[in-house]
Amino acid sequence: MTDPLNAFTPGPQPHIAGVPGGALSGITFAAKDLFDVAGFATAAGNPDWARTHPVPTRHAAAVAAMLDAGATLSGKTHTDELAFSLNGENAHYGTPVNTRAPGRIPGGSSSGSASAVAGGAVDTALGTDTGGSVRVPASYCGLFGIRTTHGAVPVGGLVPLAPRFDVVGWFTREAGLLARVGRALLPEAAAAPITRLVRLEDAFDLAGEEVGGGLAPALAMLAEQLPFESTRLAPDGLSDWFGHFRVLQGRDAWRTHGEWVTAVEPAFGPGVRERFAWASGLTEEAEQAAEAGRNAALRVLDAALPPGTALLLPTAPGIAPRLATPAAELEAFRTRAMTLTCIAGLGGLPQVSMPLGLLDGCPIGLSVIGPRGADLALVDAVVGWGLPLA
Questions:
Q1: pLDDT at position 69, please?
Q2: pTM strictly above 0.90
Q3: What is the per-residue pLDDT across 11-36, written as a single tens digit (0 to 9) for each?
Q4: How many distinct structural domains can be found in the chain?
Q5: For residue 275, what pLDDT band results from cuts at 50, 70 and 90?
Q6: Exposure on the CB side of residue 326, measured as CA atoms within 13 A
Q7: Annotated active-site residue in 85, 109, 110, 113
Q8: What is the rounded CA–CA span in Å between residue 181 and residue 330?
Q9: Choice among 85, 110, 133, 139 that is catalytic
Q10: Residue 115 catalytic?
Q11: Does residue 280 carry a catalytic annotation?
Q12: Domain of 33?
């Protein structure tokens, strides 16, 4: 197949028809190259991973669920190596095109899935989100994207990064399909409808005035439908929350992949190589301290999210960085982005990014975080608001 977006993995692509008559019949989808597809190698963004792992003989659970619902699988999409990045620039396979922000990165690690949906190659695409890998590309590429409640969607047949945070997510160009896919993948839950919004002022402060200005028209329209309150989750700043998340993610990633990294010595690209090296040096004492910090954050989040409540925040601290941004600058931006995304990550909470803002002609996302298990209530609220897309 031709691939002007560089969204798809090299070589032959799967084309598997869904079960006729399903709820997603007529819908095409792609799957990030962390999801197993029977008969096709899973490379996880790294040639050494593909070389040292057998070709799968069965589909990942989420892929099978999409097919059972009638959707047709149309390809496998690029990912950052082992999902340990937020940028979408793969040293081995290149960078998928961001059609909504030309000359800028698509975001990672679900880069190819975001590119394929934004570029119209498929209707929807599966991604994964550990530290922001669906939400951030959704913001950069002008898409709806969901991080689901931790454990809500089965992860069988999925290459993990940090299992305590890994979740399945997906991208769409419109809210209705986001909800339709949700009903195919998520369990029905008796969650209260979203009737209360709380604006996270510390998150808006971190994102900055320009981002707030770009989201202001959407916020004004939303406030007409559902006036919102304001709060601060972390009066001393969210940087400590990110520090806890970073240590816990790093320890989990090394626990998951350290033996393979040590034995194979894979050729990692910049950024991913340094992150695994850093993770290898983390101590049990650091993990215990981070776990205590996470538990404190969980108490704050549980208090802030009674049934029917959602938290409102910018998805990312800016538009997509330019291609070939210097590494130090890109890492600083990644840290700011993950300081926002770690909120839902630490809590195991669902979050939907909505393409409702523009800044310098490029998309920026507005997000809502809901209580655990309120995924369908959250997407139903997004559909019901019917806000105009940027």
A1: 98
A2: yes
A3: 999 999 999 999 999 999 999 999 99
A4: 1
A5: very high
A6: 3
A7: 109
A8: 33
A9: 133
A10: no
A11: no
A12: 1-390
